[in-house]
């Protein structure tokens, strides 16, 4: 579908594509939104969910920050590059496998303040589910999606957005994360493999 330069505006053709798509995971239509931290994925996912809501009764958004096991993403993984791959397996187990069987999925929610898993979130087996976060548009997930979206911005803008949102104290974590996510996205070919590419500024 190519590249566009916008952030909040949602093209009606993207909405129409998802509505017209046959359910790909049991009765669920999946949308994957990936891209580097600070690129605008959460903003896009929220706007896209709002655009879908008048047409579909149920639209869920699952955020990466809720399913990452802190900065490690998946604590048992040997490194963060492998962890992004392992994350897709977790999403399959927590959500996609139950949906295929016609059941609601559940995922634990990471508490960033206590550095441990907290509550459990149920994601019903219906409507559209938007997966939003680094690694949530990986090949294993986007191949099952009605639409996969890559959101990007220049590195300086991305870092400034994250530090403005979360504070300068995470600066070292964020710089290491940016390096690791870049390697993962190259390995996975996430940008090139996505249906739609959006640049924000």
Automatic annotation (TrEMBL):
<protein>
    <submittedName>
        <fullName>Unannotated protein</fullName>
    </submittedName>
</protein>
<dbReference type="Pfam" id="PF13238">
    <property type="entry name" value="AAA_18"/>
</dbReference>
<dbReference type="InterPro" id="IPR027417">
    <property type="entry name" value="P-loop_NTPase"/>
</dbReference>
């Amino acid at each position: 579908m190519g590249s566009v330069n916008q952030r909040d505006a949602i093209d009606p053709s993207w909405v129409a594509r998802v509505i017209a798509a046959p359910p790909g995971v049991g009765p669920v239509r999946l949308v994957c939104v990936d891209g580097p931290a600070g690129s605008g994925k959460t903003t896009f996912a929220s706007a896209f969910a709002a655009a879908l809501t008048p047409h579909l009764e149920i639209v869920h958004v699952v955020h990466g920050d809720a399913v990452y096991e802190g900065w490690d993403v998946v604590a048992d993984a040997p490194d963060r590059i492998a962890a992004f791959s392992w994350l897709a397996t977790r999403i399959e187990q927590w959500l996609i496998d139950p949906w295929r069987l016609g059941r609601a999925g559940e995922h634990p929610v990471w508490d960033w303040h206590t550095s441990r898993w907290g509550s459990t979130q149920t994601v019903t087996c219906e409507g559209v589910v938007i997966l939003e976060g680094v690694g949530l548009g990986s090949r294993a997930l986007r191949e099952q999606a009605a639409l996969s979206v890559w959101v990007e911005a220049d590195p300086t803008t991305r870092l400034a957005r994250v530090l403005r949102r979360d504070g300068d104290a995470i600066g070292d974590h964020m710089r290491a994360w940016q390096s690791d996510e870049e390697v993962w996205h190259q390995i996975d070919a996430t940008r090139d493999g996505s249906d739609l590419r959006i640049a924000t500024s």
